[in-house]
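Worked Example 4.2. Consider the chain below.
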Amino acid sequence: MSLVKLHRQAVVAAFQFLTRIPVPVEVPFERPVLTRSIAYFPLAGAAIGLCLAAASWALPHVLPPWPSAIVLLAVWIGLSGGLHLDGWMDTADGVLSHRSRERMLEIMKDSRVGAMGVIAAVLLLLLKSSLIAWLMGGEYSGHVAIPTILVMSAVWSRAWMGVAIAGWKPARPNEGIGRLFHSVKLVYALIAVVLAFVISFTSLMINNINLIEAMLIAGAGCILTLLTGGVMSVWLNRKLGGLTGDTYGAMNEAVELAMLAAVVIWAY
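Applying the procedure from the previous section yields the following structure tokens:
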């Protein structure tokens, strides 16, 4: 198989793996394709971000801020099929159980959701929806438009998943997602970071942000992502002896939340 064809399949795989956006092309979900797909995770994030951007423009015309925020968050979750939220809940169930490493991993594999997972999900959704409601409520006066904020949140959170997959060993290398993404090259994660920066920068420029400021804001998004994702990766790696598919989803949620919170804190 040619390298070009592998990368084309990797782009499709990134969309099919991370989103529920229909891409009617069959690709083999095998290691050569999936390990390359992490380079294109930000493209899947950009597609989600553009859908959210459109919704954030349309919803305030028919609904007040809080209902708009809740509907937007529902769309956000639906576009990924709840994949990352499920990882957030499973990670909370396992890590916050304070059991042995092996028992934590067993809990995370259980399809049932425990009390800590429910509590973590409720708090996450409340916080996300409240931040979105504040941004959409007329008090936000920042010059970075809300659609751009949503695009950056969706792009950087997915870029970080690629970094985490390449940068830390899987806790269960022969099971689940760890088996499919085994031995990912760091260069693919670096491509994902560069792509996320380019998408963020382009979105900011479209938003009429000047060149220097667009570079600074895109760079700030990168730094915030590395700090949030890095701290979580180190902590989860120590707790679990590696990372799992659930922890990748949890970190995606955490980076999205950090992006929204940072904008609100900065603008408040």
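The two ends are 53 Å apart (CA to CA). The CA atoms of residues 46 and 155 lie 5 Å apart. Compare this with Example 4.1 before moving on.
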